[in-house]
Amino acid sequence: MPSEWIARHDQTVTLKGEWTLANYRHIKTALIHTELINTEPGKPTGATVSLDAITRLDTAGAILIVELIGVEKARAVADWAAELPREQQALLVRIAEAMEAPLDVAPPSYSRISQALASVGQQMVGLWSQQHQLLAFIGLVMATLFHLALRPRHWRLTATVAHIQQSGLNAVPIVALLTFMVGAVVAFLGATVLQDFGATIYTIDLVAFSFLREFGVLLAAILLAGRTASAFTAQIGAMKSNEEIDALQAQGLDPIELLVLPRVMAMLISLPMLAFVGMLSGLAGGAMVTSLSLDISLTQFMATLQKDVSVTHFLVGLSKAPVFAFVIAVIGCLEGFKVSGSAQSVGEHTTSSVVQSIFMVILIDAVAALFFMEMGW
């Protein structure tokens, strides 16, 4: 076995044959049997080594040679093995340099303040990248929408109606129930506070202003952000994992046209209607509390509502619904396209879509409230 790759005469060792990965195990065994190397890699042998008879050499064989002759001698291989081809000499030098580098490098130590600042910086960079992708995706959706505006045959009416049923009609019970209960709570708290001032009649105005301007559309948008945006992300993410989107593109179909626009249009139609349902349910909850706790009849409630509350408040609240709907739908679809292919990725991006949607809805609502206040609306 040893004579096939190693020939030893006194203090001279001649390496021959193919020192390649295919023969690595046998060559390693032969070196150990001839006691040329031991369990300490890189410790050179005291014998004179000749490489002239080597016919083939790859990385695996070069590692064994460096272990045999040592790192220093391997780096100077051109001085004592000039007959070896230059490619094999360069390989031995490269392996020697790699083996000479320390493997255990102590990581640099940073203070807690530096780590905290670095973490904040990473979060800000991630947030900027996220918002940049969102703006780019909004532009892509708007461009596709304008492109299809004059081509009604390309509209996916069946898919749009199906998504309206899923995101709008099926969400009516939960939106109505939630806003009804919140309206009752707001009326109860208002009556409790205003009773000390003898102004319990203004509980009607409190409930009307809060639900017509804010709570009706805001609660509906938050519910759809958790209910529908997550569904959009999971649906598109599952298609991305199964390579269905790649199949659509291979067939020459536009995923934005097929998957995104029907969902966006469905949300633009569904959320204003759900906001209207939420406003009515909130007012109904407030009317129930005022009727049971304050002895204000439904007729008096409606008369006060008609006298004190103008239609402007209703229009202000309803005007925010399309903006919320567009942002929720776009974020849900974008996170679905970001899915990498695993079930864990689907879950992570579904969570991210819900968090982003709720954050953006509340942020836009706050900015809109400041704008309408400055405008005097």
From TrEMBL:
<keyword id="KW-0472">Membrane</keyword>
<keyword id="KW-1003">Cell membrane</keyword>
<feature type="transmembrane region" description="Helical">
    <location>
        <begin position="206"/>
        <end position="226"/>
    </location>
</feature>
<dbReference type="GO" id="GO:0043190">
    <property type="term" value="C:ATP-binding cassette (ABC) transporter complex"/>
</dbReference>
<comment type="similarity">
    <text>Belongs to the MlaE permease family.</text>
</comment>
<dbReference type="InterPro" id="IPR003453">
    <property type="entry name" value="ABC_MlaE_roteobac"/>
</dbReference>
<dbReference type="GO" id="GO:0005548">
    <property type="term" value="F:phospholipid transporter activity"/>
</dbReference>
<feature type="transmembrane region" description="Helical">
    <location>
        <begin position="273"/>
        <end position="294"/>
    </location>
</feature>
<feature type="transmembrane region" description="Helical">
    <location>
        <begin position="171"/>
        <end position="194"/>
    </location>
</feature>
<feature type="transmembrane region" description="Helical">
    <location>
        <begin position="354"/>
        <end position="373"/>
    </location>
</feature>
<protein>
    <submittedName>
        <fullName>ABC transporter permease</fullName>
    </submittedName>
</protein>
<feature type="transmembrane region" description="Helical">
    <location>
        <begin position="132"/>
        <end position="150"/>
    </location>
</feature>
<dbReference type="InterPro" id="IPR030802">
    <property type="entry name" value="Permease_MalE"/>
</dbReference>
<feature type="transmembrane region" description="Helical">
    <location>
        <begin position="314"/>
        <end position="334"/>
    </location>
</feature>
<keyword id="KW-0997">Cell inner membrane</keyword>
<dbReference type="Pfam" id="PF02405">
    <property type="entry name" value="MlaE"/>
</dbReference>
<keyword id="KW-0812">Transmembrane</keyword>
<keyword id="KW-1133">Transmembrane helix</keyword>
